[in-house]
# Entry
Amino acid sequence: MEMKLMDVLQREMRVRNYSLKTIKAYSRAIAGMCLFFKKPPRDLERDQILEYFDAKVEHGLSSQSIALAMNAVNFLYRDLYKKADFEPFRHPRKTKRLPVVLTRDEIKRLIDNVINVQHRLMISLSYSAGLRVSEVVNLRVADLDCEEMILMVRQGKGKKDRLTVLSSKLISDISTLVVGKSGKSYFFESNRGGKLTVRSMQKIFHQALQNAEIKKPATFHSLRHSFATHLLENGTDVRYVQVLLGHANIRTTQLYTQVTNPALKNIVSPL
# Structure
């Protein structure tokens, strides 16, 4: 029963052009709920589903993960079961956390402590262009224009294309890496050919973090956070930063202004 439901759910999402990442996430969420109740979701009452979400909160699941599970359930009942009287679940309030940002010195130490040329370019390019790890993995040779100094991110988050900047300091390494590759080739390839996995990229980053002896709880995404923060520190208009990051709402970009508030940084502690 569960497998049949998963097949129908995934087919419906594919038809609606949902990303593979979202399809997998929704499938995990619905499969988890089926396992929890040991019965088909169609037979569940709203109060039962609320108890399920409450149990997840009790077990320490983040508000973002709860919101994703609610999106999956809303899709199931509204779009798949087409229940006319279904009242969508409202997302929990997000926990407000400032992004982990690396200083310019930490970025330099991070890059300098990577010996492998391709790995060093991965980190440098991710930081200098504000890329998500999935965007780095899917980058192809034809997406980089060294003459115009731009990089095309194809089908990023929300299946949207966008342009961002290339650093002139990386042109030499980029030119070396693309030798012998076609435009359709992945820019960063694994040793066995084909694209790298997100997991392997994250391992490369964490190894570099250890080698540089940086103690911050940084992740690969911190490179993107640092890109945005440092642009704002340079005086770049927040609206341009929004475009480079591909944010649909400028309020998302404005979060970085809380990290790099010049007036706040100039305040000296009274101690």
